[in-house]
Amino acid sequence: MQVTETNNEGLKRAYKIVVPASDIEEKLISRLTEIAKTIRMPGFRPGKVPVNMIRKLHGGAVMGEILEQTVNESSQSAILEKELRPVVQPKIGIDKFDEGVDLEYTMEMEVFPNIELTDFAKIKIEKLKVPADEEQVSQIIDQMASGQKETKPVEKNRPIASGDVAVIDFTGSVDGEEFAGGKADDYNLDIGSGSFIPGFEDQIIGHDVGDEFDVNVAFPEEYTSELAGKDAVFAVKIKELRESIPADIDDAFAQKMGAENLENLRAKLRENQEQELNVYSRMRVKRELLDILDDKHTFDLPDGMVESEFNTVWEQFDQQRKDHPDQIDEDDKGKTDNELKEQYREISARRVRLGLLLTEIGQKNEITVSPEEVNRAIVQEAQQFQGREKEVFDYYKKNPEAMQSLQAPLLEDKVVDFILELADVNEKDVTVEELMKDPGEKTGKKTKAKSKKKAAAKKKVATAKKAAKKSDD
Q1: What's the CA gap between 339 and 316, in Å, rounded?
Q2: What is 150-245's CATH topology?
Q3: What are the phi and psi torsion angles at 194 (to 5°)?
Q4: Model confidence over 37-92: pLDDT tens digits?
Q5: Looking at the chain, which terminus has fewer C-beta neighbours within 10 angstroms, N or C?
Q6: What are φ and ψ of residue 37, in 5° steps?
Q7: C-alpha separations of 182 from 176, 200, 432 in Å
Q8: Domain 2-110: which CATH class?
Q9: What is the 3-class SS of 196-243, one letter each residue?
Q10: How many other CB atoms are found less than 10 A from the CB of residue 333?
């Protein structure tokens, strides 16, 4: 095999590779001999069909198989020989291939840039932490107790007030016509709960048992039916008035909620609260770390990767502004396409730079994602499709790109954890509001250009979900 370099410009590499016809002929004869051992043909005993006859009948198909095998093996051999690190799968172009002549093809690629890693121990980063809010824990317990409350009839008749439970019959109509789902008898309405159409419960307050009257309301514009925005009239009859009896907040109540006692219930709620807030804290410290890594590393980027990433990002943005123009950032609405494309090219370059950087850190420090971790991630995806789990597993098994998209965020998180273990991380107690605040608000700088469209970057395998839906279409 002969390998000749034809391009060595920046990160681009190109090679002309020639494989002697004799090597291909040897592979062809070897494969035809294997086939001869099992093929059946009239007039010949099993395993006794002449190779030349098999070649005449099936040589073309076998030659295609040999071509693919030869290109794969020889290209990998050339990559190892030249000590190359392609950032994506090399592009192969067949120049000459025919029986009895040398195979000639070109191999083009972009290689991994030379990255000089910073000293992670010198990175200083602040991790915001929100202590558990005991007052909020108490509020949650009060809400839980409210859901366990009982009611009893009001002994002495009086006007209905907020906090009461009114037992009512009602029939709703629009333009004099009753509508589906707008009628009920003996309905227990918790006055003040906001469970009905805005304004409905307010018009119940002050009435007495036995009253019959109309309630006039308008369905909200965002109501999810053909009733949205329409005026409605409900004929209401008050049949009974009941008052709430709050549940006692004690150990017995906590046991009903699945805890050992009241203190154990508080501890569980406190832990859940801290876990939820830690998710935000983790997101924020990761974002800040990526900003630091981006600032501290400068290296050449593969043009093809940046262009591919930009095309993906721009396509997603363009589709979003067509389908959901109301969700486009206000800053973007006044910009021309050229201005927007420049902005999104910067975002694409950042994403490529960070992707290569995290990959390099992972490789140099032997950070990998185990098969068990990947399987757990697939199981989590499959659980979203009850009864169709096998389809999701098969999809990932048959689609290397989908599997890679599943592995990438797992590896990214492991690399981030590795760096944070080495970095100088200072924890700081803050309020929930401070935790949720955009870091750019402190300096007056906007972080949008660096972090915007991260949902697109994490294409967290919606592809699997689409695959699972295909059989329904």
Answers
A1: 17
A2: Chitinase A; domain 3 (3.10.50)
A3: 70, 20
A4: 888 788 787 777 888 888 888 888 888 999 999 999 999 999 999 999 999 899 99
A5: C
A6: -70, -20
A7: 13, 13, 41
A8: alpha beta
A9: CCCCCHHHCCCCCCCCEEEEEEECCCCCCCCCCCCEEEEEEEEEEEEE
A10: 10
